[in-house]
Amino acid sequence: MSTADTANAAAASSSSTPPAPKDDRGDGFGRAVLRYARIAPASIALAVIVLVSSIITGTLWSAATTGGDSLVWAAGVTTTVRAGFWWTPVTALFVPEDPIQLIITIVLALTVMAAAERLLGTPRTILAFFVTGVLGVLGGVLLQWGAASLGEIWATVTEFDFTLDPTVGIVGTLITASAFASSLWRRRIRLLTFVVVLVFVLYNGDQNNVYRLIAALLGLLLGVLLRRGPLRRLHRSSHGETRSLVAAIIAITAFGPLLALLPPGGFGPLSFVASLFEQPTVDVADVLSRCDVSYSSNCRSELLMVSVQGPGPLLLSVLPLVLLLLAAIGLRRGRRFALLLGIIVNAAMLVLPFTVLGGDIQLQVDSITALGPAVEILLWLLAAMLVPIASIALLVATRRQFQLRSPREAVARFTIVVVCSFALLALVYLVAGLWSLTEFVPDATVADVFASTLRRFVPAGFLSALGTPIIPTVPVVILIYQWVGPVFWTVFVFATLQLYRSSFTGRTLADEEHFRALLREGGGGTLGFMGTWPGNVYWFSADGESAIAYRVIGGIAITLSDPVCRPDRAERTIAEFVQFCDVNSWTPVFYSIHEQYLPVFDALGWPTMSVGEETLMHPQTFDLVGKPWQKVRQAHNRGIKAQISTLWTRWDDLSPLIQTQITAVSEQWVSEKELPEMGFTLGGIAELKDPDVRLYLAFDPDGGLQAVTSWLPSWRDGRVVGWTIDFMRRADGSMPGIMEFVIASAAQRMREDGVEVLSLSGAPLATKPVSDGDDPEERTAMDHLLAFLARTLEPAYGFASLFSFKSKFNPTYETIYMAYPDPMALPAIGNAIGKAYLPDANAREYVALARTLVR
Q1: Is the pLDDT of residue 321 over 50?
Q2: Per the confidence metrics, is the pTM higher than 0.85?
Q3: Residues near 740 by beta carbon (within 8 Å), at least 6 away in sequence
Q4: Which residue has the higher pLDDT, 352 or 79?
Q5: How many helices (H) and strands (E) does the chain have?
């Protein structure tokens, strides 16, 4: 694709201005709203009903409280069973409890439930909402009532609570709709929804969460009944999908302890972990003064409370959560280190019930009657260990999916950074502690200071298992005491993220020669030679007969142009490369592929989208006869009259003087623009110097350089059958229409050489004109987005002007596409492609780009 000064080319070739594209953003937005309203009327209706009911009942302004008028609509043991309000399992689904729940309900109704309605259809969505919601609430209330009558602890504690929660029905509807989703989305919806609901039940434990769990289970059954077909067998997940799901599960469990802090909380088996984030109120000065004078039996627990005061210890208390999120990031990328980190952190979490609860568990079984509560407490203690045990089991069971290791150099660098930072910070505290040895409470020995040094790096939840703490009283030592731990773990987190980014991908001279050899045999298309440019690395099939050029940016493996192989091997080549990316936990994206490969991706079930139009000329039928060629013919004749000469050559064959002139023309063009120069599919001065690239130069009668173009070869069986223009620059003061002259002259030369195809390269974000008699295709939301990007970037890069310039040559148009596996990855894909095009842009250039776009 060309890096020409498109604005200059267009201005020099024609005085006419291309018509501005029609701004259909308003119409497009209106149509999108109407289409959404047609797809999700029930979801919109639910959002409206919930809003209206919150106004009528007053929960829009204040939360429903015990004894309030809104309780007549609330479900619960006291209202539904004892007061006989039989309608409450229905009305509880339409009245939010407080303003926060109102907002959550409206958002979920307009997104999650709307997505479910698209799968189910409106009638079945309404049915699913009522069946799963009403039965979920009613079943939960009856279960709660029965368990409370038997003295079960959770039911007894929550017996007098009430429920106003429309999300119960939304969760049930979502799980019901999963039966109608594809196997990929069915697995995602069910697994992630149940994990979220279960984590809420275990960590928060209020009755609403239990009702949601019951509704979700009912949704599974209802989905099977509504589907009315044979049970579909489970399809095996890909490596990438398995990694994503495992990472999501670990991340969700990491947030579990924070859920214990949400009101009302305190009822789940794991609710006790909320104490990790609590800083109990304690008079620090009083405790230190009393325990310094006389160390009593209460001093140990009081000093433990003092030791967790301040922001540093509070940050350290969330360390297990941070490390689990860090492990989830690595698991998503298939990293072995993340697997080990996840197992170690979860193993440490197993001891939390004992360190946090400490001696608070007392079981006295002096009669048969007391046996039941004692057993229940033991079951709750075992349930507290359920999440870390299940997480470890999941990681061990899927360990084969996480085999990616970092290079030895990266591991060595990580080890040095972590070990040295730990040693340095520990030494700082150790020296400060020994310097103020007599200023601790209680009186400390050298051994106590060494033990305290290790404690500075341990989260608060584990401190009770590490003996009696010593508390410094010198301000400088207190500062070090609180912050050495958080600083070290911050270093550890960033060092780990850097370790995740390291990989073995690289490019050798042998790989490049192999890739070029395959290009000469054929394959790769008209844009295939761009794969030889810096920044790309190569994948080869096992037999070495196929290749794909790609680059990895943020976990996205972006290929460039068509696969380099024989046509009959294309499907196999694409499938093997997809498997290769899956093993490496990358998302493959095939960029700038041609139409003949679309059936392969259709068979894979991949979406595709147009990313531009390639303009092709055919030298063997090229002439300048007829009205369509008038503008090009005029420029060509003007060049002949002006005695413009041309030279078809290579960079190495040029004299140093001409090489300097080319560099000067290019540098002048770059210097006139504050904008960042694009790369990836847009070559620069470095790409001119390749021995296989040809240059076509234009000179005035005095030998001055008028214009320079570069041409990339495409081969078949070792013979060049096509050339693709890449680099275009015109000198200041050059003849008007010089580019038309150069391209027309190049086409004539290629006709004499027997060249079959002359490609004017691709125009990004362009749309080919609709031929007479052809009906325009209906534009999708993605088409509107690409049109918006084209309009936005036009002032900066002139893609539309470039496309208009190329249309003068009466080309045939061939759409180039992008194929990708998952629409959910589009934001990451867009970010990766943006970085591929602007790899070296600095902050000043981005500011200039933004300034250009808003003019």
Answers
A1: yes
A2: no
A3: 13, 631, 632, 635, 636, 808
A4: 79
A5: 33, 13
Report how far Cα 729 is from the mean position of its chain's Cα atoms: 38
- What order of strands is seen across the sheet that includes strand 694-699? 537-540, 547-553, 556-560, 587-593, 812-819, 608-617, 757-764, 719-730, 705-716, 694-699, 645-649
Exposure of 523 by Cβ count < 10 A (0-12 exposed, 13-18 middle, 19+ buried)?
A: buried
Beta strand pairing call for 719-730 and 757-764: parallel
Kindly report the CA angle at 146 between 140 and 152, in degrees rounded to 5? 100
Secondary structure element (H or E) that encloses residue 142, with its range:
helix 122-149
Give the Cα separation of 654 and 640 in Å (integer): 23
Residues 365, 371: Cα–Cα separation, whole Å: 6
Task: Judge whether 151 and 197 are in contact, CB under 8 Å.
Answer: no
In the three-class reduction of DSSP (H, G, I as helix; E, B as strand; rest coil), residue 213 is classed as: helix
* DSSP per-residue string spanning 509-578: HHHHHHHHHHHHHS-S-TTGGGGGSTT-EEEE-TTSS-EEEEEEETTEEEEESS-BS-GGGHHHHHHHHH
Q: What is the distance between the alpha carbons of residues 766 and 562, in angstroms, rounded to a whole number?
A: 19
198 CA to centre of own chain: 25
Helix, strand, coil shares, percent, the chain, to 5: 60, 10, 30
594: tokens are 């041609």
Torsion sign across C-alpha atoms 74, 76, 78, 79: positive
What amino acid is encoded at 429 in this protein?
Y
Decide: helix, strand or coil at residue 674: coil
CA–CA separation, 315 and 525 (whole Å): 55
CA separation (Å) from 267 to 137, 214, 264? 18, 17, 8
Q: CB neighbours of 332 closer than 8 A, spacing ≥ 6?
A: 243, 244, 247, 555, 585
Which residues have C-beta within 8 Å of that of residue 88, sequence separation ≥ 6?
72, 73, 74, 75, 76, 79, 80, 137
**Closest CA relative to residue 264, chosen from 214, 197, 198, 209:** 209
Query: For residue range 380-389, what is the model confidence (pLDDT) as tens digits?
Result: 666 667 888 8
b/e per residue, 390-414, with b = 16+ CB within 10 A? ebbebbeebeebbebbbeeebeebb
Alpha carbon distance 808, 373 (integer Å): 87
| 8-state DSSP, 78 | I
Q: Rounded to an integer, what distance in angstroms lies between the CA atom of residue 320 and that of residue 97?
A: 32
* Separation of alpha carbons 522 and 684, rounded Å: 25
47 has a pLDDT exceeding 90: yes
Phi, psi of 235 (to 5 degrees): -95, 145
Q: Which amino acid is at 184?
A: L
Residue matched to tokens 């994503």:
244
Confidence of residue 10 (pLDDT cuts 50, 70, 90): very low
Pairing of strands 547-553, 694-699: unpaired
Closest CA to 518 of 468, 555, 469, 563: 563
Q: Rounded to whole angstroms, how far apart are CA atoms 712 and 710?
A: 7
Q: Phi and psi at residue 266, in whole multiples of 5°? A: 85, 0
E strand or H helix at 369: helix 368-384
3-state secondary structure of 56: helix
Expressed in angstroms, the distance from the first to the final Cα of the chain is 26
Is the distance from CB of 606 to CB of 583 less than 8 angstroms? no
- Please report the DSSP string for 274-332 in residue order: GGGG------HHHHHHHHHH---TTHHHHHHHHHT-SHHHHHHHTHHHHHHHHHHHHHH
DSSP one-letter code for 768 = P
| pLDDT band with cut points at 50, 70 and 90 for residue 280 | low
